[in-house]
Amino acid sequence: MNSLTSASEQNSSVGAAVTSIRAEGNIGKLLQEAGKLKPQDMERVLKLQQEQNLRFGEAAQKLGLVTEADIQQALSQQFEYPYIPAAEASLSPELTAATAPYSREAEALRTVRSELLLRWFKDGRKTLAISSARADEGASYLTANLAVLFAQMGRKVLLIDANMRQPRQHGIFNLGNGMGLSDILAERVPSLQVHTIKPFQTLSVLSAGSPPPNPAELLARPAFGALLSGLETSYDIILIDTAPAQLSSDFQLVAARVGGMLIATRRNVSRIGPLAELKEKVTAVVLG
Fold first, then answer.
1. 239 forms bridges with which residues in the sheet?
2. Where are the domains of the chain?
């Protein structure tokens, strides 16, 4: 038994070593392709790496040729983990999962993602509504970042902005709020108007669309349920940002349609009374 364990451990060590060697080479190539290193720089880095037994990235940083952000960007490409360096981001800085994926805040958001995978999406469910009691509790922020995090797992994700009263997702993702959900439900457009978010090729956003005078009536239409049923055949996860309870009862219509809702709260902002009232009104499974 011990000999088998020893052989297994040796094989794991060999595999890890091979992976490490490949990783070092790939990082150097990626940094060179990104214009961060020149051919002569590569020679200097490799020399220092051998002399001081450093990783390639550590040696390049020690020579002052690249930054930590450059290394993280190369690693994200190597492991197919898309994110956007904050300095290059065209998206809102609110998208912590996209612009600062190694931050403490992003890690806290990953904890929420894990909870949802275990508590909601594990049984074949695909759609979840997200709302809050008040407009300043971060429901749109939470929805947007969770969408990015699920896309970083390779899931095919659709974020729907169903907050037709105060839509925010088109601003967060730097999209024009042209035709969207309201126009589809009002039968003003012949086809679905979704935006693919680069570099997250598996993430799409359906914006709220033209400001309608009757959001609740649109969400109550059978067309909304039919739309979601059709979309569930094309996406792994659908997250729906809904208007807060203080603005309307739209959240009730969406939650009842999809069967579950995650409630966003914010430290030093959320209050027990409005949250309790919100939970009482939801005729669906409440998470959070």
1. 128, 159
2. 2-79, 96-287
End-to-end CA distance of the chain: 46
**Cα–Cα distance, 125 to 35 (Å, whole number):** 44
Nearest by Cα to 257 from 127, 151, 83, 140: 127
Cα separation, 232 vs 121, in Å, equals 13
Domain 96-287 has CATH 3.40.50.300: yes
Helix (H, G, I), strand (E, B) or coil at 265: coil
Cα dist from 14 to 7, 9, 20, 50, whole Å: 11, 9, 10, 20
How do residues 25-74 score in pLDDT, each as one tens digit? Answer: 478 887 887 788 888 888 888 889 888 998 888 888 888 888 877 777 77
Kindly give the pairing relationship between strand 260-263 and strand 195-197.
Answer: unpaired
Neighbour tally for 81: CB within 10 Å? 13
Residue 268 DSSP code:
T
Which 3 state secondary structure label does DSSP give 27? helix
Q: Can you tell me the distance from the alpha carbon of 49 to that of 33, in angstroms, rounded to the nearest whole number? A: 20
Tens of pLDDT along 91-132? 888 999 988 888 999 999 999 999 999 999 988 899 999 999
Please say if the pLDDT value at position 4 is more than 60.
Answer: no
Q: What is the maximum span of the chain, computed from C-alpha positions, in angstroms?
A: 74
Q: What is the dihedral of CA 64, 31, 86, 164, to 10 degrees?
A: 180
